[in-house]
Amino acid sequence: MGSSGGQFLSPECVAVDPLGFILVGDSGNARVQIFQPDGALVRVFGKRGAGPGKIRWISGLHVTPDMDIIVTDFKNHCMQIF
């Protein structure tokens, strides 16, 4: 548990993209972390808050065939595309 890259406070959901990359929605850190199929951390995005591009509590995560990342935010009452 923690807030460094590759650590989680409250992982809520997981998605796998068409290339096999693993996305983990971490509500405790208000971010999404993306890992290679071998588990290596590739990217982290998300900042806590309200408004466009901000996350308060991730409740769902989906990757479209076009590689858009859809995040459902329970506390902000919205869905965002990243």
Question: How would you portray this structure in words?
Answer:
- Keywords: Repeat.
- Pfam families: NHL (PF01436).
- This protein has 82 residues and is an all-beta fold.
- Strands 1-2-3-4 form a 4-stranded antiparallel beta sheet, with no helix packed on it. The chain has a 3-stranded antiparallel beta sheet with strand order 7-8-9, with no helix packed on it.
- 0% of the residues lie in helices and 49% in strands.
- It has one domain: Thrombin, subunit H (Beta Barrel), CATH 2.40.10.
- The chain has strands at 11-16, 22-26, 31-35, 41-45, 47-48, 54-55, 58-63, 69-73, 78-81.
- The model has no long low-confidence stretch (mean pLDDT 96).
- The protein is globular.
- Strand 2 and strand 3 form a beta hairpin.
| Rg result | 12 Å
Number of alpha- plus pi-helical segments: 0
> Helix/strand/pairing class, anyone?
mainly beta
CATH architecture: Beta Barrel
Helix content: under 10%
Mean pLDDT: 96
Total domains: 1
Poorly predicted runs: none
